Amino acid sequence: MSCVSCDRLSNETYHHLSENEKRELSSKYTSLAGRIAQGSPKNIKLLEKAIRLDPRNDAAWVNLGETYLQRGLYAEWNKYNDKAIQLNPKEWQARRGQDKLFFFRDYAGALYDLDITDTLTVGKTDYIYNTSVDYLRGLCYYGLKNHDKATEYFNLYLKTENEKTGSKQLDKTAYLYLGMIENYNQNYSAAIEILSKGIGEYDHLADIYYQLALAHFMIGEAEIADQQINKALTLFNQKNYHKSQFQLYEVIDQLYLKNIRKLQAEIECFL
Amino acid sequence: MRFCAFICMGLTFLASCDYYVVNPHREIVGQLSESGIGNPDFEPCFKENIFPYYYSRTPAGFSPGKDSLRTYYLSQYDNKGIVSESGYLTFRFVINCKGDKGWYEIKQLGLDFNEKKFNSILVDQLLALTEDLGSWAPIRFGDTEFDSFIHLTFKISNGELVEILP
User: Would you say residue A146 lies in a domain?
Assistant: First the structure.
């Protein structure tokens, strides 16, 4: 006998488990789901099972939401993410801020979530994966074109991280954005100083060389600008430019090949 | 009346046996179907499996690049004097192995991520612009092209197109 909707019915119950056992099992199912392709039927069923076992499993709600976010299903993402934040705001509110920043360019909304997190975790710098909220706040203010506050937070980030873990762990794009702010405000010497520092830390980012070429070009140092733009082009062609890890979204002020070609042509005209 | 009684009995039976309804998730999350809108002749090359666009090292996308995509929409978009609309308008669609598009699904959200209805003039215009736009590269694994689903989100603020995401 065929029964087309049998897979819509479940009689799996957990009455025999204690609350602790349910929580433990729920956590294990969340972990298991994390090892299966995100968004696959098995992955989603496991996350939903984890939630049935323990509706207070905030990690399961977040993982469920993330799947929908990456597929452009934002209402579902918002619904599941909200659940997780209600259950554990200390852990997840800043992460929603990060999502709002990168996936939606909602700078004010992101800042709100990051600031709220600070009030929940007084005296502690929060991290989302390995990204400091100070760096993210710098990006939010950069997006809002509040360059003074952006500079303040990028500098705070560089100082704090340098003291804590040394320069190896730094996200070198903090130097990039500081340089971009100086270039935007036509402070070309200051831009060269900060971007050169960035290159001292990490010399494999086309974006930094592009900004450096722009600064040198604007103060009439076309030959130096030409060297820098050629380095930018080489690195870009090697795919060494600022981009998001899985390219699920563009970074803020993404560099394109056309930008490099355009500046290169302008510099060559000047030589 | 008899039908209602039957339903009630059925539900009572299920409840007494601790049965409950679950989502069977027969497809991967976000899968699109032929009930979508757009070109009625559109067909995926492999109906059996349509990947999310980012599942490969060579993902699906607009071949000339995101900067050209942005230039296209910003130069063509006209809010027609509609300045009261804000939110996220998302078009989800399939790019088949030949780079053709179809099976569109439209999602409309306010800036608070709650569902809303945009003025249809704006929706129709952006949908037409998207349907007209060629040069889409299919997802590729090795040397073989497959089908994938992708989305474009237009962030609109007071009628202005301010971002093309993600």
Answer: no
